[in-house]
Amino acid sequence: MAPPAATSELSSAPTGTNLDVKNLGGLKMTEGSHAKTIELGKDWESFTFAPIRESQVSRAMTRRYFADLDDYAESDIVIVGAGSCGLSTAYMLGKQRPDLKIAIIEAGVAPGGGAWLGGQLFSAMVMRKPADVFLNDLGVPYEDEGDFVVVKHAALFTSTLLSKVLSFPNIKLFNATAVEDLITRPAPTPTDPHAVRIAGVVTNWTLVSMHHDDQSCMDPNTINAPLVISATGHDGPFGAFSVKRLVSMQQMERLGGMRGLDMRTAEDAIVKQTREVVKGLIVGGMEISEVDGANRMGPTFGAMALSGVKAAEEALKVIGE
Ligand code: 48N
């Protein structure tokens, strides 16, 4: 028999509102008609959580996950890569177009890519102006150093951006999920009878993707979308995925390859070059440096944010009103 339920004044306010916490010891909250008081710190002996059955937890998770997979199987836009560029793109689109259904596919369990630290494991993050405009819009505080600003911890930028993106009802993040291929449709042109347009992505759980060599029959899943925005970073174990795939499917002759570090030229180039590289595929962030052979910029992130702004603008040109 469950111990006598602790008396508790729990906030019955809808989720997401602030609990009325008076002080840490006595967690006082008020709940509708069942006004009860938990004196946490004093009543631990009689304290108990509401009852649960394991299957309820399992159903609460799986019902939502598979409903989302079903719902986003047809998306308006798929963003590949939830690094600083991909998330900035999603933030701009989520704000401007709440009518669009946007799926973000992120191979890592933890989204954020390379933006959790500022450089060489240092915590502060530098952004050159005018990227401070993006930080102002996001509500991220920074120290102004004249031509650049410094966010005291990169994780403050990335966690704020991530939380804003995840709060949009029309955006769904599928993390720990890798894009393994691109969906294509014939789109011959007068100069290239074999040209294709991109029409979605092929996905698998990342841990499955990593074991295709030692397991068989692990076929993928798919998401159809008229527009894919790829921001998978510069070449690396998972990086530059979409543009490398374009080369291997003969839709791009070869990659220009990211060049050496030159902060002064890299950031302008990457923002300016963010664009639709083949019909239905926009590339931004460090992935575009692999296409045109732009330099890398090292530990400064303004170009990632503004490449995301540019990618969102390019997307709205493609998608239209
Ligand atoms: O942070 P990244 O790697 O990429 P960007 O372009 O958003 O930001 C790049 C930035 O962090 C830098 O590299 C900085 C500015 N340094 C520059 C320099 O010169 O050193 O995020 C890419 C994301 C990651 O989270 C990957 O896990 C993910 O994309 N990803 C994928 N997700 C799904 N499917 C894939 N095939 C895939 N490949 C990568």
From TrEMBL:
Post-translational modification: During the catalytic reaction, a sulfide is transferred from Cys-217 to a reaction intermediate, generating a dehydroalanine residue.
Signal sequence, renumbered to the chain: none
Cellular component terms per the entry's GO annotation: cytosol; nucleus
Family to which the UniProt record says this protein belongs: Belongs to the THI4 family.
Catalyzed reaction equations: [ADP-thiazole synthase]-L-cysteine + glycine + NAD(+) = [ADP-thiazole synthase]-dehydroalanine + ADP-5-ethyl-4-methylthiazole-2-carboxylate + nicotinamide + 3 H2O + 2 H(+)
Keyword NAD (UniProt): yes
Highest taxon in the source lineage: Eukaryota
Chain positions with 2,3-didehydroalanine (Cys) modification: C217
Co-factor: note: Binds 1 Fe cation per subunit.
Any single biological process term in GO: thiazole biosynthetic process
This protein's UniProt keywords: Cytoplasm, Iron, Metal-binding, NAD, Nucleus, Thiamine biosynthesis, Transferase
Subcellular location: Cytoplasm; Nucleus
Primary localization class, coarse: cytoplasm
GO molecular function, one term: cysteine-dependent adenosine diphosphate thiazole synthase activity
Protein's name according to its UniProt entry: Thiamine thiazole synthase
Cofactors required: Fe cation
Ligand binding (substrate): C85, E106, A107, G114, V179, D219, H234, M286, R296, M297, G298
Enzyme class per UniProt: transferase
EC number(s) recorded for this UniProt protein: 2.4.2.60
Assembly: Homooctamer.
Function: Involved in biosynthesis of the thiamine precursor thiazole. Catalyzes the conversion of NAD and glycine to adenosine diphosphate 5-(2-hydroxyethyl)-4-methylthiazole-2-carboxylic acid (ADT), an adenylated thiazole intermediate. The reaction includes an iron-dependent sulfide transfer from a conserved cysteine residue of the protein to a thiazole intermediate. The enzyme can only undergo a single turnover, which suggests it is a suicide enzyme. May have additional roles in adaptation to various stress conditions and in DNA damage tolerance.
One Pfam family in the UniProt entry: Thi4
